[in-house]
Every structure is written in C-alpha cells, then in structure tokens.
Write a structure and sequence with these properties.
Elements lengths: L1 E9 L3 H19 L2 E6 L4 H7 L5 H8 L3 E6 L14 H11 L4 E7 L12 H4 L3 E7 L11 E5 L2 E5 L6 H17 L3 E6 L5 H14 L6 E6 H10 L6 E4 L1 H12 L9 E5 L5 E5 L16 H14 L3 H16 L2 E2 L9 E2 L2 H10 L1
Parallel strand pairs: 1-2, 1-3, 3-12, 5-10, 8-9, 8-10, 13-14
Antiparallel strand pairs: 4-5, 4-11, 6-7, 11-12
The structure holds 1,4-dihydronicotinamide adenine dinucleotide and magnesium ion.
1,4-dihydronicotinamide adenine dinucleotide binds next to helix 4.
Length: about 350
C-alpha cells in the first residue's frame, strides 16, 4: 500500500524538524512494508514570499486529495505589519476550515523520563495521560452576528457563542469513540449553569451517552475544570469541549508535561484527510540554528501513522523510540539539560532513528 502525504514544512524551524520527521517515517515505512509518496507544498510565510498568498489554491487542492497532511508550523515576525487576512496565520486557519477539520485532538501525557523534570510536583503529574477533544470550526470564534457598533455608552463589540445539535453531536461522538478505545472516561466541559449554548451542549452529550453505555460520563463547569486540571490531572481520560473553552483548557493541560517541544496534535473530520502538526509554533528565535526539538514533530508523524493511515505498528515504533531516547538521557536544549546529553535537532533525529 502507498499513501499520499502532503508535507507543509512552513516557516522558522519548520523545515528542520520536518526533515527529521520524514526520515523517521521513511524508516518505519520500509520496516513495515508500506510506501509513502510525499508532495511538498508552501503555506504561511514561505507561500507569501512566492505567491503573495498564505494558502495558495494549489496547496489546498493537494491537501484535499491526499491521505494525510503533515504540517510543521507557520509564522514569522517578518509579516507582523500585514493585515490579518494576509498573514501566515490566516493560511493555517483557512486550511483547517477548508478541510472541514472540526475535531482537534491533543494528547497530553508525561514521558516517564521527564516526570522528575516537570515544573509541577512529581506526584501530581506522574500519572497524567489524557486527551483533549476540542471543537475547532464552530462556537464563538465563528458565530454570527459579530462586530462593533456605536451605542450610547460608546463603541460596543460583540461575538456570538452558538452551536447546533449537528455540531455538538459530531464532536461528542468523536470523544465518546476515543474514550471507548481508552480508559472509558469522558469529561464534558461547559458553563451550563450560565449559558444557553452550554445547556444544549450538555443535553446533547447526555443524549449521545446512551449509545456508549460503557463510557463513564461526567460534566464539569469550565472554571472548576481549570482548577481540577492543576489539582488532580490524573482524574481525566478524555476531555470534550467547545472551541473557546478548549483553546484555553488545552494550553493549560499542555503545560502539565513541561516542554511545548514534546506535544503533537491532530485535526480531523469524519471522512477525508486529517492535519497533523506539533502544538508549538515556528520558533523564529531558534530557526536555522539546528537546536530545535524535533520530538513533537516526530510524535505528530506518529499520530498521522496511527490515526490517519492506520499503521499502528509504525506509530508504536516512533513513540517507543522517543521514550527510549529520553530514557537514555538525550535532551534538546528546550528540556532540562542538567547532567544530560544535549543534542541538536539533526543529531536528535539520528538518535531517534537508532533507537
Ligand atoms: P512558538 O511555539 O513558536 O515559540 C514559543 C517558545 O518556545 C520560543 O521560545 C521557542 O523557541 C520555543 N519552542 C517552540 N517550539 C520549540 C521546539 N520544537 N524546540 C525548541 N523550542 C521550541 O510560539 P511563539 O513564539 O508565540 O510564535 C512564533 C510564531 O509561530 C508566530 O508567528 C506565531 O504566529 C506562530 N505560531 C504558529 C503556530 C502553528 O503553526 N500552529 C502555533 C503557534 C504559533
Ligand atoms: Mg491556543
């Protein structure tokens, strides 16, 4: 079997970490006897430089007809003066909406070798293994009406938090199915004590739960959830949230594990290619220095292999390699390096290949 994968190296450290990721993919593809055909396209700043467009039509078209899309990161201070819709970031937003990727999946787990290096207490983080499922194409970020108008109290601005039954049901189903494959615990986060949209959210999630009797469902108000994530994060398995709450909660959850350089993500729809990318940005401050941490990128490739291409053995190999590299004491400079063997980006890639 041969898969068609679109590569979007993007900006900053993007090309350096993408190079490491493709080498690791090639290695496991050969080992498990499947083929990968890459198609490399431009997005973000690099696309602006060449086409004056952060998401060229050709890029979106290639992504739509692929089996999966692997993205590094976009963005550079070079484009800060451009209007919002012309900036690199809008290329990524338009790619997500252009592909209809309504489900953002962020696994948060603490690697055994890094437990003692967390900034939080060891006993709090040691059993953390959760996944945030965030609705990505609806809610207050997209709701109409929105805007600014004059009022007797000066200018007034407003956004609308809105969800339909269809939007809630499809993201909730993703979360229930994921929980079914994991520890069978689902926590839905809302603000149903105050918001109508959260009341509908909660009603629909409860309704859907009758189809998943094996999954233990509970609900938390978002303010309490923010607290519980710090107090006792190992109580969570799968967390389900809307767009705004998910944005905040998933960044909070990410910090439990330490470095942003370790965290992958997937953005999915029911049918069609998913987008797999590290949580971090383009890190312009360390670009072209060969010191970036390629592990979030390799873990995103692993997610692509598992979720997008269903090559579970290959995905396991990459995750096991990361685990081993860390246990063997290798670190990149964004991690705690005291007494550890510090490697550059390319060297870390080679070490992962040898593990
Ligand atoms: P950032 O994630 O790029 O960097 C934050 C800090 O973490 C920096 O000190 C950076 O050096 C470090 N860092 C990030 N990834 C690292 C890695 N793999 N290895 C070692 N260190 C790493 O976020 P920042 O600085 O807020 O944004 C920089 C640019 O990236 C902006 O243009 C922003 O819009 C863009 N961005 C893009 C994202 C994406 O493509 N999905 C997500 C977040 C930001
Ligand atoms: Mg965010």
């Amino acid at each position: 079997k041969t898969y068609n994968v679109v590569l979007l190296p993007g900006d900053g450290i993007g090309p350096e970490i993408m190079d490491v990721a493709t080498k690791t993919i090639d290695y496991v593809a050969q080992k498990y006897n499947f083929g990968i055909e890459y198609e490399q396209k431009l997005i973000g700043g690099s696309a602006i430089d060449k086409y004056n467009d952060p998401l060229p039509e050709e890029t979106l078209k290639a992504c739509k007809s692929s089996d999966a899309v692997l993205l590094s990161a976009i963005g550079s201070p070079k484009y800060d003066a451009l209007p919002r819709e012309k900036r690199p970031e809008s290329g990524l937003l338009n790619l997500r909406s252009g592909l209809g990727l309504f489900a953002n999946i962020r696994p948060v787990k603490v690697w055994p070798a890094l437990i003692s290096e967390s900034s939080l207490k060891q006993e709090i983080v040691q059993n953390v293994d959760l996944v945030v499922v965030r609705e990505l194409t609806g809610g207050i970020y997209f709701g109409q009406p929105k805007g600014r108008l004059q009022s007797e109290n000066g200018e007034r601005a407003f956004n609308t938090m809105t969800y339909s039954t269809m939007e809630i049901d499809r993201i909730a189903r993703v979360a229930f199915e994921l929980a079914t494959d994991r520890k069978k615990k689902l926590c839905s986060i809302d603000k149903a004590n105050v918001l109508d949209v959260s009341q509908l959210w909660r009603e629909r999630v409860i309704e859907l739960s009758y189809n998943f009797p094996k999954v233990e469902l509970n609900h938390l108000y978002v303010d309490n959830a923010a607290m519980q994530l710090i107090r006792q994060p190992d109580q969570f398995d799968v967390i389900l949230t809307g767009n705004l709450f998910g944005d905040i909660i998933s960044d909070e959850a990410a910090m439990l594990t330490g470095s942003i350089g370790m965290l992958p993500s997937a953005s999915l729809r029911l049918e069609g290619p998913g987008l797999f990318e590290p949580v971090h940005g383009s890190a312009p401050d360390i670009a072209n220095k060969d010191i970036a941490n390629p592990m979030a990128m390799v873990l995103s490739a692993a997610m692509m292999l598992r979720v997008g291409l269903k090559e579970n053995n290959a995905a396991d190999d990459l995750e096991n390699a990361i685990d081993k590299v860390l246990k063997d004491g290798y670190r990149t400079s964004d991690l705690m390096t005291n007494g550890k063997k510090v490697l550059g980006c390319r060297e870390m890639g080679e070490q992962i290949l040898m593990s």
